[in-house]
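thought: fold this chain, then report.
action: predict
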Amino acid sequence: MITRGQHWIMPPAGIKIQQKGIYDLKDLLKTIQTFFEEKRYTFQISETQDKAKDKGYELIIGMKSDRDIDDYVRFHIDIHMLIIEMEKVKVKNKNLDRGNMDINFKAYLYLDYKNRWNKNFMSRFLNLIYNNYIIKIKIKTEYERNLYIA
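observation:
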């Protein structure tokens, strides 16, 4: 049943990518931000934490992006990065980073993000009918597919 609010199109735990090795963290963050801006998402870094550890640094970066599709649907993507044992390295006269990186992506549709269908019992009931019968196919095909490729 499709209800108002968050409609997950991937597992609620998200999709995880793990990378161990050398990378350019500044370039990666800039590329992520550029991607979302080109796709007309609002983008913000929501969390940053760093801690000095025995083996390098531990870095946590949280990112959020939203895009209003119409008056009813908003695309939302969260990215959470955890980097452990991070240290600076120099490769061919370029300053890079080395460490263990976990990136977790979570994406969902936010239905009725303007909260218009939450006024009373009758409007919430009509919203269930609207989501599950009137626009169900549009949610499952157009909106979910476009969140991946938009």
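thought: worth noting. The CA atoms of residues 29 and 101 lie 13 Å apart.
final: tokens above.
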